[in-house]
Amino acid sequence: MKEDYYDYLFKIVLIGDSGVGKSNLLSRFTRDEFNLESKSTIGVEFATKSIELKNNKIIKAQIWDTAGQERYRAITSAYYRGAVGALLVYDITKKNSFENIEKWLKELRDNADSNIVILLVGNKSDLKHLRVINDNDATQFAKKEKLAFIETSALEATNVELAFHQLLNEIYNVRQKKQATKNEDNLTIQPRGKKINVLRKKVLKKINTYFIKTIYNTF
């Protein structure tokens, strides 16, 4: 697959608290790399990767890794604009990271397009022995907010590809449905024609005929 060729370009944002593993999810998906000593993202970083859908359409994902620290949130909020998809990430071993998901979700919905596709991601599933967030709690939250949900491990590469592919496929499906609806709306819009009052036309014809006969008889 040629990286410079694609049918669609989708902007994706990774959001969530600092330290939940957003940068490693990005590097695992785009470069198949994992860094145990990964430092906190400063501001915004991004990478790209193309995938091929079952219908042979090429999707190029432009993935933005936003900093989770409070002091950078005013900067990163501007980067939500134009995003069509988001991975909302928390750490299954950190209670605060899950509790803050609602705050991140609100910020996302306040700044991004109303049709943005969001996938809730519980990262670090390899640390099951340290788990503090039950997957049932995450499932219930996702259901309430109408989000899809998946658990991943950037360290073990578990479900990372699946998470991004699932998100990109859903974005494509949403856009196709939106385009189909738009096309249907265009077909139902009929050009405004000239209204013809048939009865009035007949009356005017009779009046004109009367005046023509009157004028003829006068001469």
Automatic annotation (TrEMBL):
Residues annotated as coiled-coil are none
Extract the signal peptide range: none
Looking up PROSITE patterns in the UniProt record yields: RAB, RAS, RHO
**Which SMART domains does the record associate with it?**
RAB (SM00175), RAN (SM00176), RAS (SM00173), RHO (SM00174)
Provide the topology term for how it sits in the membrane: Lipid-anchor
Q: Name one GO molecular function term.
A: GTP binding
Q: Which domain of life is it from?
A: Eukaryota
**Annotated localization:** Cell projection, Pseudopodium membrane; Endomembrane system
Q: Which UniProt keywords apply?
A: GTP-binding, Lipoprotein, Membrane, Nucleotide-binding, Prenylation
The keyword Lipoprotein is annotated on this UniProt entry: yes
Q: What is this protein called?
A: Ras-related protein Rab-25
Question: What is the species of this protein?
Answer: Piliocolobus tephrosceles (Ugandan red Colobus)
